[in-house]
Amino acid sequence: MPNTHATTADIVALEKSYWDAVKQKDGSKTAKLSAETSLVTGARGIMKISKDKMGAMTEDGDWTLNSYEFEDIEVSTPAPDIAIIVYTVRQKVNIGGKAQELRAADSSTWIRSSNGWECHAHSETFLT
39, 52, 83, 111: least CB-packed within 10 angstroms? Predict the structure, then answer.
C-alpha cells in the first residue's frame, strides 16, 4: 500500500463511485466498495451491515436514485490509509412510485487496506 495520503479529489471520486453504483443498482460494486462489515446510521437508526447484505440492499427494494449532487464537501485524511468525507447532498429519488427531492448531510469513513479503499461507516441525516 502506498504510504501517501489520498487527495480530496481521490476521496470525492470514491464517494461518487459509490453513489453511482447505488444509482445503477449495482450491488456487486457497492459490495466491493464496502468493508466486510459497515456501520450505517440514518432514518432507520443504526445498522451493522455485511458486504453481501449491502450489495443485496442496493439491488432490492421499490426505490430508484435518479440523480444526486454533492455540495459543501470537506475531506480529512488523518492518516495515509484513512479518509473522512462530509458533504450535503441533493437527491432526486422515487420511493414506492413517488418522486421526491431530498437534501441530507452525509459522512463516510474510508480505510485503505490490501483490498483497496473500503467504506467502513456512512451516516445520513435528512435536512429540512
Answer: 52
What is the extent of the structural domain holding 63? 8-126
Question: What is the value of pTM for the model shown?
Answer: 0.93
Where do we find the cell 450535503? 88
Give the chain's domain count. 1
* Conformation bin of residue 126: beta by default, left when phi > 0, alpha when psi is -120 to 50: beta
For 6, other C-beta atoms within 10 Å of its C-beta total 20
d(CA 54, CA 31): 6
Within a domain: 2 = no
DSSP 12: H
CATH of the domain at 117: 3.10.450.50
